[in-house]
Write a structure and sequence with these properties.
homodimer, 278 residues, alpha+beta, 7 helices, globular
């Protein structure tokens, strides 16, 4: 995957600390204005952040079915009418053409363009899907005292890998479940499983704990997305399903056109995180 | 709505008591063989019963979106691939062309034919949706000691009405939320709300408690579906969302073709009822 566009902010740019307790609308405005171009971890704490997947209408039923059949990686938060850039259930005042810091245009599953906005390429047949993200749980993690690297270290971010677990196919979509790795201090393994299992809309419980090779990951240093996480003694490798499963399916299924958010640069919704089962 | 086909069973017909503790597969087999043609209340206790809605593929995305936007009346349990009559998530050994006691064919939302089987009219572009049903909670109700009429009286069945509550439109679908009425002894009002609110896939908590006129129902004797329920002193009128919202939307939206189960004659799935939120 190509390197991201420059994360240098426009004049009046903000700090992560300033946006931690900002409202979702304020975060979206900062992104729209170019005052925030980095990843969205710890922003608007307590609100659902979402993966964005935009497909032409002719793929909309198949992709919605794919989400329904694979709720662990792709828990559905919202879907738009064809041509409507407003996610009316999750953020009725937002605009999906402008409110994400960086978009990727995929052709046959390959990134062909990085974009700051979709204004010039949005079409009447585009349908946008929002699916849950583990960054939605940053507040819950902080309140539970989970010292996870991505929460305490500005540079850290979960590593993500294509696993050998296959999604349930639906229509034209198939592909691997992409997983995100968090190295977890051993005393936190049980509480973190208990905690995340109560938030199905943010991927729920881990899909795997322990040997990465058991889910087809031979070398942890070869990340597919994100940053490598150092596994220190006394830590357990825990893997959660990840929304990057959508662009991975575009690649596996050679979908002619899909637009997604750049990894880590999520869409911030108005929906408060609450416990959920699916 | 037209009267149902004769409920007289074929040779070897069964009693409700025999099917109460039968497996879902046994109930479906009895229906397929014509040995059970009545409603499915108290059958295969503890398993999800489902509303069946079949539409041509060109309406599949819109209807799936309609379910997603209206999870109270239409909580989605399963959806099939176009042309595939097997609900692979909820009942992989079943056949939706034969395993419902009676089907209704709707043209522009009007019932034009009642059918024992879809064998002769199933097409490659048919997509079937299964949505949750309040009969799925019969076991939970019995175990909680809820003396509801439809559980104790063979002849009783919840009355159903078009309410003045509008569904969130999606694509070509719009229409009223259909509600089912249960007259509840006053001491059970709170426990029944607490109980049902924990089962979102079976319509969850009531959408209204009290004066029927507040949701547009002027005369309880004029039922749209089901049987009139007598409201005795010391009872409260409680209304839950109902899956008949789907054919009501076909009528309101004048959908050219939709096939549904006949009211009360649900599809019995293999999925065990568990607590859920949406």
């Amino acid at each position: 995957m190509q390197p991201s566009l420059s994360a240098v902010e426009a004049p009046g740019s903000l700090t992560r600390g300033q946006l931690e307790h900002a409202s979702p609308a304020e975060v979206r405005q900062a992104i729209r204005d170019g005052r925030w171009r980095s990843n969205t971890k710890r922003l608007a704490l307590g609100y659902h952040q979402a993966n964005v997947t935009i497909v032409p209408e002719r793929y909309a039923f198949d992709f919605m079915h794919f989400c329904f059949a694979n709720p662990r990686p792709l828990p559905l938060l919202d879907v738009t009418e064809p041509g409507d850039p407003v996610p009316r259930k999750c953020a009725p005042g937002a605009d999906l053409r402008t409110d994400v810091a960086e978009y990727l245009l995929l052709r046959d599953g390959e990134v062909v363009e990085q974009l700051r906005s979709l204004d010039k390429m949005w079409r009447k047949d585009h349908v946008a899907f929002l699916t849950g993200c583990n960054l939605s749980l940053d507040r819950v993690m902080l309140e539970a005292g989970m010292p996870l690297p991505h929460l305490s270290n500005e540079e850290a971010f979960p590593a993500q890998y294509r696993s050998s677990i296959e999604c349930t196919p639906a229509g034209v979509f198939r592909g691997p479940v992409v997983v995100s790795l968090r190295p977890v201090p051993d005393p936190l393994v049980v509480p973190l499983i208990e905690l995340t299992s109560r938030y199905a809309l943010s991927h729920g419980a881990p899909v795997h704990v322990g040997d990465p090779a058991a889910i087809g990951i031979r070398d942890l240093s070869k990340v597919d997305w994100g940053l490598e996480n150092l596994i220190r003694p006394g830590h357990t490798t825990m893997f959660w399903a990840c929304g990057i499963t959508a662009p991975a399916a575009a690649a596996a299924s050679r979908i002619p056109e899909m637009i997604v958010h750049a990894p880590g640069r999520m869409f911030v919704t108005d929906r408060v995180v609450k416990e959920s089962t699916l």
